[in-house]
Design brief:
There is one protein chain. The chain has two domains: 65 residues; 141 residues, Alpha-Beta Plaits, CATH 3.30.70. It is elongated, with a radius of gyration of 41 Å. Strands 1, 2, 3, 4 and 5 form a five-stranded antiparallel β-sheet that branches. By secondary structure, the protein is an alpha+beta fold. Helix 3 packs across helix 5. The termini are far apart. The chain has six helices and five strands; from the N terminus they run ααβααββαββα. Keywords: Membrane, Transmembrane, Transmembrane helix. This is Capsular polysaccharide biosynthesis protein.
Length: 247
């Protein structure tokens, strides 16, 4: 089917073309109503208890702190499998999530082996409003502190040796994330037009097949014309006997 055939088919099937145009315009309009989402990421740093040997808790790195951070993250997130990202900088928004949260220990390892090198938890929140994101982030941080305290009390750790946490940044920073309305509207219109003309082409192809099948059936139902009799050659015609002469 050529382009001109498709245009003529669209003119013949104008109701389908009109319905597709209306649906495409509605889809384009809905893309302009999206105001994006609000996203926030903060880091919860696990700190070792200060001592004379290590007075600066921020500079103290320990495998025990990393393990504790991982245990707390699992307690907060639940028993579900942890998604493996190609980079620790991957975000929930980049994953396509528009409403949700995550608490994870950053993994800087590659394809074959994980590598947890920081006693830090990434807390991410995505929501429809900045207020919702801020409130949910505070709830998650409170839950992290509660789970850490419960873990240490169950282990019988003396309060003087408690692992503590600090939040960086201290204040909640919420970002609005949104795409380009013009690109979204253009893509929606292109998809709608493609779907409409594809439907017209399919309907036209089916109609042609039905017409061809109908003509073939009519041709098969017509009686075959009688074949004309072949003329007999003259030499094969028997000669008539001559009448007897009168005496």
């Amino acid at each position: 089917m050529t382009v001109w055939d498709l245009i003529r088919a669209a003119v013949r099937r104008w109701p389908v073309l009109l319905a597709g145009a209306v649906a495409s315009l509605g889809l384009v309009y809905t893309t302009t109503l999206d105001d994006g989402v609000y996203w926030s990421r903060t880091q919860v740093v696990f700190l070792a208890p200060a001592s004379k040997a290590y007075p600066n808790a921020l500079r103290t790195t320990s495998e025990d702190l990393i393990i504790t951070a991982g245990v707390v993250a699992k307690a907060v997130s639940g028993p579900a499998a942890v998604t493996k990202y190609a980079s620790p900088d991957a975000t929930l928004v980049g994953e396509g999530i528009r409403d949700g949260w995550s608490v994870r220990l950053p993994d800087t390892g590659g394809q074959w082996a994980p590598n947890f090198a920081q006693q830090v938890l990434y807390v991410e929140v995505v929501g429809a409003t900045a207020e919702q994101v801020g409130a949910r982030q505070e709830e998650i941080i409170d839950q992290i502190e509660h789970e850490l305290d419960r873990l240490q009390r169950d282990a019988g750790v003396a309060p003087v040796n408690d692992i503590t946490v600090t939040v960086a940044p201290e204040s909640t920073v919420v970002h609005q994330v949104g795409g380009s309305s013009m690109r979204a509207a253009g893509m929606a219109g292109l998809l709608g037009a493609s779907a409409t003309f594809t439907l017209i082409a399919v309907l036209e192809t089916r109609a042609r097949r039905r017409d061809a099948a109908g003509r073939a059936a009519e041709a098969a139902a017509e009686p075959a014309p009688a074949e004309p009799a072949e003329p007999v050659p003259a030499e094969q015609v028997p000669a008539e006997p001559e009448p007897a002469a009168a005496r």
